[in-house]
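Recall from the previous lesson that a structure prediction takes nothing but the amino acid sequence as input. Here we apply that procedure to ascorbate ferrireductase (transmembrane) from Camellia sinensis var. sinensis. The sequence below is the only information supplied.
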Amino acid sequence: MAIEVNAVPFSYVAHVLAIAGAVMVLVWCIHFRGGLAWESSNKSLIFNMHPVLMLIGLIIIGGEAIMSYKSLPLKKEVKKLIHLVLHAIALILGIIGVYAAFKYHNESSIANLYSLHSWLGIGIISLYGIQWIYGFIVFFYPGGTDAIRRESVPWHALFGLFVYVLAVGNAALGFLEKLTFLENSGVAKYGSEAFVVNFSAVITILFGAFVMLTVLSRAPPEDDYSYSTI
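The prediction returns the following tokens.
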């Protein structure tokens, strides 16, 4: 299914939302939560790495990777490489972000994997990794036959969008979970920090929506193997 509208304008809106989302999560974690650290006596600074890496990595860079196939006026092979590399960066940052949450929990003597957000997170990062490996093997190296690639394109695209939608939803769930903990610890429900967190979640959802609109819109003429096959 494809919308008979140019994908590029939707992608421009997504880029703006991506910048806004990245700025807001950094403002939250650095200004309101005290900063970022991999090693610190203040374990909360370790946790702060988690939302930054997950949003900027898995959600924003992952979304840009998806849109690259439908919005860049480049040849198919170039777009395929950009798509692959951006997804690899998103996956690596996502894995580090998940590890940061485990590191924070372990060093703070907090149980792991007790929430729906954490259960979904492990599943999503695993599916993301499987999707990337499959795409690398079939579409990049060593590469499948033409028949396998033709058959794989719509399923690869559909599965990728499914995983990405799950990731966006789980990110919003993560913002909600963390803000609930903070409010129970004394953060004002109508204070500046609460608004920053809630708006970060809203922007994350809007970014995901415009990624989807970009994907479902008309691609540039050079686009041969694209999401328009869905």
